Amino acid sequence: MSNTMDVMVVSAHPDDSEFGMAGTIARWVKENQKVIYVVCTSGDKGTSDRNITPEQLTALREKEQQAAAEALGVYEVLFLRHRDQELEDTPEFRKQIVSLIRTYRPRIVMTSDPYRRYVWHRDHRIIGQVVMDAVFPYARDYLAYPDFIKKGLEPHQVKEIYFWGAEDINYRSDITESFDLKLAALRCHKSQIDQLKVADIEEWLRERCRLMAEGEDFELAEGFHREVLP
Q1: Nearest CA among 31, 57, 30, 52 for reference residue 42
Q2: Which domains does the chain possess?
Q3: 40, 85, 101, 109: least CB-packed within 10 angstroms?
Q4: Start-end of H helices in 73-219
Q5: Angle between helices 16-30 and 54-72 in degrees, nearest 10
């Protein structure tokens, strides 16, 4: 298929990918990996500014996400436009994600960890679980969606899944050479960065990535829970 991707990133909101995995994405793009972003909501509730409407925020955050993806070299961004803070683990949503996996047939899928405890955005939990189930077994199994076969959406077996925001980290990705691109992409999300009220976003981000790389033979890292699928 001409639109086959190496990597599919499925996030709940614009900016999730840049916080969680942009350095790794930038490195993979430089290695000629083809990456697609699937953004499930447009982040229409992600502000403390009472003077902006959800519609205005949606337009702003989608524009920011497009700019960030372009900075990284992401091939395409799909906005599903579900409502922020209202994602649910439903058969319909799962089927939508399976459809995208079967359409783009990625080798790797990346998303937020659904198993992180306590303080964690509910949308992150939901999307992580939906994506995990979509990857295994629904995208793989011929009989899962007979109607897909009639549409030419054949089963697809994802090879690896990476969860960002994980507590059980078992894979650290070297982003020493791609940190500047991660920072540039994150800065595209001005509506979100301004709310962090961090004096020096570069030093704040560098320290986070430096701590993630402790014990490794490289300086800066992003951490994931990585599973190789059977």
Answers
A1: 57
A2: 7-228 (3.40.50.10320)
A3: 85
A4: 91-104, 122-133, 146-150, 179-187, 190-196, 201-212
A5: 20
